[in-house]
Write a structure and sequence with these properties.
α3 (96-103) packs across α4 (140-152). 25% of the residues are buried. The longest helix is centred in the last third of the chain and has 19 residues, at 201-219. The protein is of the alpha/beta class. It has a 5-stranded parallel sheet with strand order 2-1-6-5-7, with helices on both faces. The chain is built from 7 helices and 7 strands. The structure holds S-adenosylmethionine. S-adenosylmethionine binds at residues 87-90, 112-114, 116-118, 131-133, 135-140, 143.
């Protein structure tokens, strides 16, 4: 079974998204296990403090190294082979190829920041830093959820049709999915491309490939 450990100040963030649709089914089928671990539990002071103001001044608070690193150590104790990923806007961009790479591991640990981010020294305790994109979220939780969701749907036996994942956008680098149509054949004056109604599978395949390439060139 693939495992995911999430180090977070808001474990409850994951309850709802993991209790519906594909992630829910994957968890129930025993294909993936998800543990959201409270970083605050690793703070040893009386007030369970996890943040502090930045040296040198400036706005906001930073995640303190002691509780965060203790939570990473606990995650490594539970799964000594774990790959620890810090979610941060300054990380490398998360991609479909990275999601696929993660499915080849026995599991991952996702570290979520809050406030103005992490004390820089925490970076020395993680294996990789990943960003979801060039924008700033209020916490690492939505980013961790996206990574987890992208990985879960690629795990064997998760999707009803394993072909779906292979045909998705980005499976081939830079290539988007082709346009899809379903019933009705006519919707508010807009029809379905003739070729899709032809039953000619070779022509349909050719059309789809051409459309995928056209769309990918247009959107890059
Ligand atoms: N001061 C930081 C900066 O400008 O890079 C932003 C901190 S952000 C408000 C708080 C946390 O949200 C980060 O530590 C990180 O865990 C998460 N986060 C925000 N944007 C993200 C992104 N694009 N990708 C991954 N994580 C992100």
């Amino acid at each position: 079974m693939f495992y995911a450990q999430i180090l977070t100040l808001f474990p409850e963030f994951f309850d709802s998204p993991l209790s519906c649709s594909i992630p829910k089914r994957a968890i129930e089928a025993g294909i993936v296990s998800v543990d959201a671990i409270q970083i605050r539990d690793f703070a040893t002071d009386k007030h369970h403090k996890v943040d502090d103001s930045p040296y040198g001044g400036g706005p906001g608070m930073l995640m303190k190294p002691e509780p965060v690193v203790a939570s990473i150590r606990a995650a490594r104790d539970r799964h000594p082979d774990t790959h620890v990923v810090m979610l941060t806007p300054s990380g490398a961009r998360f991609t479909q190829a990275k999601a696929l790479e993660f499915t080849e591991k026995s599991g991952i640990t996702l570290l979520c920041g809050r406030y103005e981010g992490f004390d820089e020294r925490i970076c020395d305790y993680v294996d990789e830093e990943l960003s979801l994109g060039d924008y700033v979220l209020s916490g690492g939780e939505p980013a961790a959820l996206c990574v987890l969701d992208a990985v879960i749907r690629l795990l064997p036996e998760v999707l009803g049709s394993p072909e779906s994942a292979v045909l998705d956008s980005f499976t081939e680098e830079g290539i988007l999915d082709w346009p899809h149509y379903t019933r009705p054949e006519m919707f508010e004056g807009k029809g379905v491309p003739e070729v899709l109604l032809s039953g000619n599978h070779a022509e349909i395949e050719k059309w789809r490939t051409a459309q995928a390439i056209k769309r990918s060139k247009k959107r890059v």
